[in-house]
Amino acid sequence: MDAAHASIEGWQIAMGVHAALTILALWPARQLLRRAGLPAGWMGWLALPLFGWAVFATLLAFRPWPALPARPEKLHPRERLKRERARKAAAAAGEG
Fold first, then answer.
1. Whole-angstrom Cα distance, residue 33 to residue 23?
2. pTM over 0.90, yes/no
3. Around Cβ 37, how many Cβ atoms within 10 Å?
4. What does the pLDDT profile of the chain (96 residues) look like in tens digits?
5. SS in 3 state form for 15-48?
């Protein structure tokens, strides 16, 4: 076998690195798109060599994101109880 055919060429290493980075980026990209309410098909742009990451980032930056309802505020149980008591006191003061 010829030595030139047995060795790995530079472009093959570059494509292998690109494939590995793309595979590593798929799950975070999926989570980002899911939480933003954007189409999951945009992950396909990451597979495009050279310009895929730039296209994906451009889509995220310049496309309008859908307006999602606000997430409920996570409160410590004591803080929640304090606010409920304040609300009840304000309602009772408003009635009487």
1. 16
2. no
3. 10
4. 455 555 678 888 888 888 898 899 899 999 988 888 888 898 888 888 888 889 999 988 998 888 777 778 888 999 999 999 999 999 998 876
5. HHHHHHHHHHHHHHHHHHHHHHCCCHHHHHHHHC
pLDDT score at 6: 57
What Cα–Cα distance (Å) separates residue 75 from each residue in 79, 80, 88? 6, 6, 18
How far is residue 90's CA from residue 86's CA, in Å, rounded to a whole number?
6
CB 38, CB 67: distance < 8 Å? no
Q: How far is CA 39 from the centre of its chain?
A: 11
Query: Domain spans of the chain?
Result: 8-95
Q: Which of 83, 19, 8 is nearest to 47 (CA)?
A: 19
Which residues fall within 8 angstroms of residue 63, CB to CB, at 6 or more apart?
38
